[in-house]
Design goal:
GO terms for molecular function: proton-transporting ATP synthase activity, rotational mechanism. With 178 residues, the protein is of the alpha+beta class. Helices cover 62% and strands 13% of the residues. It has 2 domains: 3-104, Orthogonal Bundle (Peroxidase, domain 1); 108-177, no CATH class.
Length: 178
């Protein structure tokens, strides 16, 4: 594990503990996501924050003007602390680790469901209920349309892939013939 990965987990854990104390776990995730998206969607802001010759106090002051009152103080302070310590490059990792920590603590998991056509709301709810029963966690479904699957679905929860797609079955059949 790299040093940045370890550091990102520490910041994510600290932010989670603060958010948990204030009962703002979901709000902190949304706020952190908003800041990370804003930074990564704006190339000029990325350049500004990563520029080594700009003083970190100017960077944090700029972030305060951008996000003050729009995100929680705990999230803004965490991001400012990262910028002060010249670790703005690990913001995305902090977000990813925060989501993992929050989901684990709250007994939730995100399922990325790939299908060749769009699912109805009823089908999404059925998939969430089935995988909730299988994993013992509350499942949030995120749908991805992938026409190359031909039929069926693929469900990815964390590191696990449940492949019930037609293309997956054909690949397994082809491998068994070899």
């Amino acid at each position: 594990m790299s040093t940045d990965t370890i550091v990102a987990k520490r910041y994510a854990k600290a932010l989670f503990e603060l958010a948990k104390e204030k009962n703002e776990v979901a709000q902190a995730e949304a706020d952190l996501q908003a800041i990370v998206s804003s930074i990564y969607d704006n190339a000029d802001l990325q350049k500004f924050l990563s520029h080594p010759n700009i003083d970190s106090s100017k960077k944090t002051a700029f972030l305060d003007t951008l996000f003050q009152g729009k995100v929680s103080d705990a999230v803004l302070n965490t991001v400012s602390l990262l910028v002060d310590r010249r670790r703005e490059g690990i913001l995305q990792e902090v977000l990813t680790d925060y989501i993992k920590i929050a989901n684990e603590a709250l007994g939730q998991a995100k399922a990325i469901v790939s299908t060749p056509i769009e699912l109805t709301e009823v089908e999404s709810q059925h998939i969430a209920a089935s995988f909730s029963q299988l994993t013992g966690k509350k499942i949030q479904v995120q749908q991805v349309i992938n026409p190359s699957l031909l039929g069926g679905i693929q469900v990815r929860i964390g590191d696990r892939l449940y492949d019930g797609s037609l293309s997956g079955k054909l690949q397994r059949l082809q491998a068994s013939f070899k």
